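Quick entry, no commentary yet.
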Amino acid sequence: MKRNIKTFAAAAMVLVLMLTLAACGSKNEDEGGKPTIRIGSKDFTENLVVGELYALALENAGYKVDRVFNIAGSVIHTSLINKEIDLYPEYTGTGLLSILKLPLMTDPDEVYNTVKKAYEEQFQATWLNYSKANDGAGLVVRTAVSKELGITTISDLQKHAAELRFASQGEVDQREDGIPMLEKVYGPLKWKSSKVYDNSLKYEVLSNDEADVAPAYTTEGMLANTDEFTLLEDDKQVWPPYNLAPVVRDEILNANPDIAEAINKVSAALDTQTITALNAKVDVDKEEYEDVAKEFYDSIK
């Protein structure tokens, strides 16, 4: 019995010592550890994937992260300025045209440098390195047509427009930054036929050989299927660039400058083809965006 009492007492002392050490460790981590960073994202696949990549990068650098995801695109900039989030993935074209209301530019470096300077002056926020991933406007053709007629650029397309059926989305024919902007630079696009379809049906329409050409966004997941769909090069750079980049509040960046290195590593690994493939895994293959981001981050860290 005495042996049992001694054993219990010894075990209790060990437990107390372990709890004390654990408490000391937690205290030191709180005092000397890194702060929690609140990462935002917009409410669509690509932004969720990239926001998760930023989160994984910061966690790998020793930060705690609060994921404040699925914020409406119309309010996420305000969330940053109001200090409700600390950083999020944004697009250079959105910063230029939607936030700053500046005139359209098409050179990626010029757009980036313009928004970077303006954000620092007006919003005390910094654009870290921008990636090659460009989620802008584009045109997609059936790959069979691309191969048959030798169409890989919008200049090629303009020469063959009279042989092609256009799957319009209505407003693209009228919007200043749609077909009218293309025709000013490339020349008239006099289609063989033009019919309006809902945007959600365009790839089905192309697959069913009901049309040859359709408007697209350049990182849509369906574009990963290059056997069926070919994204045309905007060889005269008519449309503005929408390169992905992290935007972070200066207050957070100045206090934690190593954030830049961790997240810039993500930007360096992203280009249009890569982000399209990641989008396809979520939107076409129906994988969870967290799993897709984790697999990709593990391949680049």
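second:
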Amino acid sequence: MSKRFTPNPKLDFVIERVIDAPTRLVWEALTKPEHLKEWYMPKAWGRVARAEMDLRPGGIFSIDIAGADGQEFPNLGCFLEAVPMERLVWTSMLFPGYRPAVFDDIPITAIVTMEAVGTGTRYVFTALHRDEADLEKNKASGWQQGTEIAVDQFVEHVIAMK
């Protein structure tokens, strides 16, 4: 996948932040399960029960979330690209080892890019959807709101790591 990617506003959801922290801390908070558990799930909605990440193309991206009632929901995907402190790409459309996924959720491919800006980091999260209907379903389901809350929690967590 090219490093130059232009999001399509009809299909893609983008969140951008400039984080007052070095890129190495942003990368660490994004890729280490012990940090991911602190920010990935909006705290008012639940928690991360388990997380496993094998940062290589074809590696596992697994995050099980537990709702407020304790019911757990597995989220399994596959990394497509991992360039330390620059770019991380994963998809829910494939299982680890590039096996085709079977699931009943709306699939996405996520692209995270980061670059140093002064002493901080420009962080961009982009979620690619198959079509406009999937994007609208994700927005209506609360997924977009939850993702925005999670990114805010991510920024707070990274700053606390300084």
